[in-house]
Amino acid sequence: MEIYKILYFLMILCYCILDFNNQALAAKNCEFPAIFNFGDSNSDTGGLSAAFTPPNPPYGETFFHMPAGRYCDGRLIIDFIAESLGLEYLSAYLDSVGSNFTHGANFATAASTIRPQNRGLTEGGFSPFYLQVQYEQFQQFKNRSQKVRNQGNIYREILPKGEYFSPALYTFDIGQNDLAAGFFGNLSVEEVNATIPDIISQFYTDFKSVYDEGARSFWIHNTVPFGCLPYVLANLPVNASEYDEVGCIIPYNKVAEYFNQKLKETVVELSKELPSAAITYVDIYTVKYRLISQAEKYGFEYPLVACCGSGGKYNYNSSAACGDTITVNGTETVVGSCENPSVRVSWDGIHFTEAANKWIFDQIVDGNFSDPPVPLKMACHKFA
Ligand SMILES: *[C@@H]1O[C@H](CO)[C@@H](O)[C@H](O)[C@H]1NC(C)=O
Ligand SMILES: *[C@@H]1O[C@H](CO)[C@@H](O)[C@H](O)[C@H]1NC(C)=O
Ligand SMILES: *[C@@H]1O[C@H](CO)[C@@H](O)[C@H](O)[C@H]1NC(C)=O
Ligand SMILES: *[C@@H]1O[C@H](CO)[C@@H](O)[C@H](O)[C@H]1NC(C)=O
Ligand SMILES: *[C@@H]1O[C@H](CO)[C@@H](O)[C@H](O)[C@H]1NC(C)=O
Ligand SMILES: *[C@@H]1O[C@H](CO)[C@@H](O)[C@H](O)[C@H]1NC(C)=O
Ligand SMILES: *[C@@H]1O[C@H](CO)[C@@H](O)[C@H](O)[C@H]1NC(C)=O
Ligand SMILES: *[C@@H]1O[C@H](CO)[C@@H](O)[C@H](O)[C@H]1NC(C)=O
User: Which of 91, 95, 97, 100 for mutating ligand 2's site (highest number of atoms within 8 Å of CB)?
Assistant: First the structure.
């Protein structure tokens, strides 16, 4: 950690001196021409929505003013990443209408896991587009987009140039649903914990597959404090002694921390094994836990209560979830949003609000929670 910091400051210093002398060798911003993203609903910009059913209003109300394929009231962290790199919001690979992939594609779908699951969406389970499938879609996209682009016409305007793939930024945010699959599948804490090495080993394999296609710059988010999510708190209660002072469930967070520890070990291993890859590990867990545990300090409120939802201490009921139409006392109503989503942390009990996503993005963009501590715009450089 310390050595990275020193190298980083030397690099900045070096950059300033060289820049001052107007020389060419300076470490410049990366100028990523494209982003290719893999993940779950934390970064799905329309995949599951296009493949199956779009979310209902009030999803999307804050920014897009209509449902926009995102499980949020507005933008996601991946949207803020794209904005800050000067790129368009990512189109979902699975979206066949109106997509423009000039500057990247998004393979993430909501409810995706790293490992394949045997319970499908219709059984309350998971997306069929688990990480290996997302990789295979990427491989097809890379190959077929070039053949089609060579036909000219409109295809030159909506598909990326072949030379964009290698210098693009490859982002990952996945794993939360592997934990959910265990906990909601009635496994004990110890049993879920014991699945983690295998989950991470699958991540390792899929990561290498993406690398083998020529990807070199990677930005990897670790997983959330699972025991702080309203849908977990509402559905998987534990004995009073197992809540921390914030109200989060300690053993579930410990399992998430173990996932992150193994993920980080794997990233270190991959960095050694693949010397031409620049891999940045981003500690989203700590940022999200900080926001939840000190919400008031940062201008937020009710961090454990869903903004859009209904019922109970956490305002979450999976049978009357955000955007669902329910019948109360013989009258149909839509489960709607809270008054002010801009001061809330949790949008629908599972996903963060746009306001929270923006706050989280602002924390991570400069590299303060990254290892190595590289800012987003320099995530193509190797510091180790
Ligand atoms: C790309 O597609 C061609 C023709 O369909 C196929 O022969 C080739 O193996 C593919 N390449 C990769 C890397 O998938
Ligand atoms: C696709 O996006 C690129 C880059 O923003 C833009 O130049 C191009 O005009 C867009 N094409 C279409 C058909 O929207
Ligand atoms: C978990 O246990 C509950 C209660 O016994 C049961 O209703 C539910 O179907 C189980 N879930 C799974 C995925 O096995
Ligand atoms: C998970 O497993 C690891 C490795 O065996 C262990 O160190 C850790 O305490 C376990 N965590 C929980 C919450 O069971
Ligand atoms: C609470 O603790 C008791 C006694 O240790 C145990 O039998 C019970 O299953 C626990 N309940 C939950 C929800 O963990
Ligand atoms: C959850 O919502 C369903 C459907 O509106 C309702 O029947 C049920 O009573 C609610 N459960 C709780 C615990 O409020
Ligand atoms: C439904 O009706 C009951 C009995 O009249 C009333 O107490 C309750 O507040 C009503 N619920 C809603 C949401 O209007
Ligand atoms: C990152 O850390 C530096 C040094 O501790 C601090 O000055 C800066 O404000 C931090 N950036 C953010 C976005 O918190």
Answer: 100
